[in-house]
Amino acid sequence: MLQSLAGSSCVRLVEQHRSAWCFGLLVLGYALYLVFGAVVFSSVELPSEDLLRQELAKLKRRFLDEHACLGEPQLERFLARVLEASNYGVSVLSNASGSWNWDFTSSLFFASTVLSTTGYGHTVPLSDGGKAFCIVYSVIGIPFTLLFLTAVVQRIIVHVTRRPVLYFHVRWGFSKQVVAIVHAVALGFITVLCFFFIPAAIFSALEDDWNFLESFYFCFISLSTIGLGDYVPGEGYNQKFRELYKIGITCYLLLGLIAMLVVLETFCELHELKKFRKMFYVKKDKEDDQEHIIEHDQLSFSSISDQAASRKEDQKVNEPFVTGQSSVNHGSINN
Fold first, then answer.
1. Are the C-beta atoms of 273 and 283 separated by less than 8 Å?
2. Distance in angstroms (rounded) separating the CA atoms of residues 40 and 33
3. Contact 241/280 with Cβ under 8 angstroms?
4. Are 266 and 184 in contact (CB under 8 A)?
5. Does pLDDT of 92 surpass 80?
6. Which carries the bigger pLDDT value, residue 171 or residue 195?
7. How many CA atoms lie within 13 A of 233 on its CB side?
8. Taking Cα atoms as reference points, which of 58, 141, 124 lies closest to residue 85?
């Protein structure tokens, strides 16, 4: 009897704090994922770094042996200055890009990477005035970019996601959840094809020292706004049509970022993912939800009508769809 009572009390305790338990598991899982990534990167990259260090040490010793008139301190100072200039996007190599890093097209490309928070880091402001302006420009421009992207994605997703799903749901009578899943997968496949595989093939053809994997790696690092900066297009020696090429890359990054956000929002609107996300959220009272709905809506890509529809959808997810003018009008309101 005591064991059954204790077991039932434990079950009630877990159910009452289910969100907290799920959040704790989420934090633990994220920490383990970070550790997993660190272990894999360390085991894969550390041997390559060691080989590179050994190779550089051999080249340095060989250079000093061949040029006995040059002392190691002088060489160290020269290399330090060269590396410092390289960090600012200026190279002393004869086969480096002959174009300026701060002409109009390069500056336009830099501004797009700053506002999109990609930030390759291959070119950075040299002067104090440029650094100060970059701070002010980013403080204003990044929220402006988020507002711009939110407005664009909200309009695109109506025509790309909600209306097609509603059309197949109403016209052919398919389950709305099934249609939404199939549509999200198809949209993701098309986006990967148009903004990853095809551009990667183009970059591998235009960039002399890039293979397809490196080009695909650049596309992913750029459109995910990671922006490591180890691969930057248009920086090769005597790049043909460099100005036009830079403008095209800027347009590609902007359109690709919009496409990625559309796909992300499409998947976030899936009923299954909504239920999964709610497992980790703090449950709010209905009055609190109504009080803060406008404030919450300013930070998401969903409109107020979408949130109202999601509540009704949670209550009526298992009800059969009723065709007719009322249903069509209801779908139009949601859109």
1. no
2. 11
3. no
4. yes
5. no
6. 195
7. 34
8. 124
